[in-house]
């Protein structure tokens, strides 16, 4: 059980460091102080073979030039904000537009594209990243003091905790954007992964992929994961909601339970199982529909559906929809969120 450090390149003449956490079971989690990026998670299959189960790169340059947010922390606000602007306390704020006319995952230089300070607690298998997002960064108000903590336990749990405070009212809605593939070392795509969600409703998207504000019942739709279903169902679906996101899923699901095994992903061939438990109100399920074939991912050609994201967070664009849980952080209040990822196997 230990934490090691290794150089991973330079950006703006500053060294990027790779932190590797290893527990007593042999599970490994590697993270960068650039973007708080999870580069690898290595866990056993049901035969005891240890393999990587997330998408990433071996070189910093690939993260800078090609990464679709692989393993990164997205913020200040994850997901899209329609028209790249919002009204807060009667003042209009204009954000960086990096997704057509919309703002996506914190903007052009969001949390995923900056260096963070790191503090290691070896005895707790913990790395805590921290930084100050200055007032006006990407258009957001307030100086935001942000901390992201990764902890690996000997029960093969990865716990991510977020903590933030601001000296002005602002928006915060942070998530980790890891692409999971439980087949191990990307031997297959994720179409035959089975996902189970404790969710009775999902949020409808408009043709611009911005939430319409409508919360739809999952009954009798390809969005009903309550008893488990394969990702392939959404890819083959004729439902307009599946088609408009590139054939698959890229939707927020409202969670009916918290911290009660509400998100479960399994892969039949390897027997790997991932349980995600969170205090967040929703999870965005993204089935990698837009992954480009323009790069290699650990020696495997990138392609659609090579990974699946399970982004625990508040609903995207909530600032424009009063019926959604708020993403407003009041001056002096604390933003605290936590998500636990538990890896195991099934026979």
TrEMBL record:
Q: Name one Pfam family in it.
A: Aldose_epim
Q: Where does beta-D-galactose bind?
A: 177-179, 250
Q: Name the GO terms of the biological process aspect.
A: galactose catabolic process via UDP-galactose, Leloir pathway; glucose metabolic process
Report the catalytic activity: alpha-D-glucose = beta-D-glucose
> Pathway, per UniProt?
Carbohydrate metabolism; hexose metabolism
Enzyme class, broadest EC rank = isomerase
Q: What is its EC number?
A: 5.1.3.3
Where are the active-site residues found? 177, 311
What keywords is this UniProt entry annotated with?
Carbohydrate metabolism, Isomerase
Q: What Gene Ontology cellular-component terms does the record carry? A: cytoplasm
Q: Which InterPro entries match?
A: Ald1_epimerase_CS (IPR018052), Aldose_1-epimerase (IPR015443), Aldose_1/G6P_1-epimerase (IPR008183), Gal_mutarotase_sf_dom (IPR011013), Galactose_mutarotase-like (IPR047215), GH-type_carb-bd (IPR014718)
Q: Which GO terms describe its molecular function?
A: aldose 1-epimerase activity; carbohydrate binding
Its family remark reads: Belongs to the aldose epimerase family.
What's the protein here called?
Aldose 1-epimerase
